[in-house]
Amino acid sequence: MAKLTLEIITGEQLLLREEEIDEVVAPGSLGELGILPSHAPLVTSLQAGSLRVKRAGDEDDFFVSGGFLEIRDNHVKVLADAAERGAEIDLERAEAARQRAEERLRGEATVDRVRAEVALRRSLMRLKVARRRRRGRADMPAGSGGAE
Amino acid sequence: MPSTREIRRRIRSVENTAKITNAVQLVAASKMRRAQMRAEAARPYAESMRGLLANLAGAGGDGQDPGPLHPLLERREVGKTAIILITPDRGLAGGLISNLQRHAGSLVLSPDQGGDVSMIPVGRKGLDYFARFDVPFRGEFQRLGDYPSLDDTRPISQIAIQDYMRGEVDQVSLVYAAFVSTVQQRPTTVPLLPVEAPASDDGDAAAEVEYIFEPSPEAVLDDLLPRYVEMQVYQAVLESAASEQSARMVAMRNATDAANEMVGDLTLQYNKARQEQITSELLDIVGGVEAMA
After folding, report:
1. What pLDDT sits at residue A98?
2. Average pLDDT for residues B92-96, to the nearest whole number?
3. In a 3-state reduction of DSSP, which class is residue A65?
4. Does the structure show a pLDDT above 80 at B113?
5. With contacts defined as CB-CB under 8 Å, which chain B residues touch A68?
6. Are A50 and A121 in contact (CB under 8 A)?
7. Alpha helices for chain B (secondary structure H)
8. Which of B42, B209, B220 sits opposite A45 (nearest CB)?
9. ipTM surpasses cut 0.85
10. What Rg value do the Cα atoms of chain A yield, rounded?
11. Is the dihedral angle over the CA atoms B205, B208, B213, B216 positive or is it negative?
């Protein structure tokens, strides 16, 4: 069976380019979306969340903060605003970002609430990706299939 | 004829200058390599984005007249122009800065421009230069550093997009020093807004792919266009950083060479002067001996 090629590209670098991938689960703006080989051509915007990459007997987690995803001819291209490998997320920094965002939300309505909410969401997702990575794969949430 | 002591002092001073220019040259060379690498690293993203945009612009209208799918694509009659001028913060870069200033000046200050022009200077050299003229600034940026990040450049594009959406400007251009080669940087003007949707570069094959757009072509375009503009600004800033460092490296190498040549000339002059002095002293002694004989 055909396999997927995945590229994760951010504005500052090409983070990943890998072939022989079985499945990609991405945080589409309409909900999580699982991509298997022979997927129809699709372009979707992404929301902050975790991008899971499954290959033979192995799995990787990435955090993406938003961006786009394009599928064409088994080639999955992720144009991320920012992306990090789950294993490389600095837990302390992510935790600090969460606290900052929460504080800002508790504050008066003078701050840009929407922006703070986005920041909180982003930091929570980042933490989630990082924690899952560290716990190992034993307790991956079951049924992580997507909208498709 | 200056005395030998004066010449020696000048030699020492020129040697010190050569040491400094040489050091600046070495620093610029290493910064140039990194700046070039960063400009290189940003390319895949920009290219993928261009491809996406080309596809989207084609997909939106069902083959009919595409029309402006998005306000950022809408072409207006141009009355008010804004120019984003990207310059270095620091000098010692040979002709780079004055070339940029002249190039931007011809766009901003020429009498035949007619409509009104405002600027967003990025970098101190452009800022200081145009502060002397009667040109309104929409925003100003400096000290982005040698390796600016996307986060550093984002506010620049945000100002441009905001003013464009509000109708305060009808057109925004980017002026920066394009990196042609290590020895050549060319002041360049590129249109930023309205966004010109690129033609799909892989020919008809791409146009025939029918994409599903989620949530919708308009929504994706809405997300994509601001990022596309951001990316263009970011790339221009990266490229001009590489241009700055290479211009500085070349200028400083020339300065070091000139200083070394000058040291050579001065040393020759010094030796001549010293020899003349010895000769005249010898003549004095010989003359004295003869007088005594």
Report:
1. 84
2. 92
3. coil
4. no
5. 52, 220, 223-224
6. no
7. 4-41, 43-59, 96-108, 124-131, 150-165, 203-208, 217-292
8. B220
9. no
10. 16
11. positive
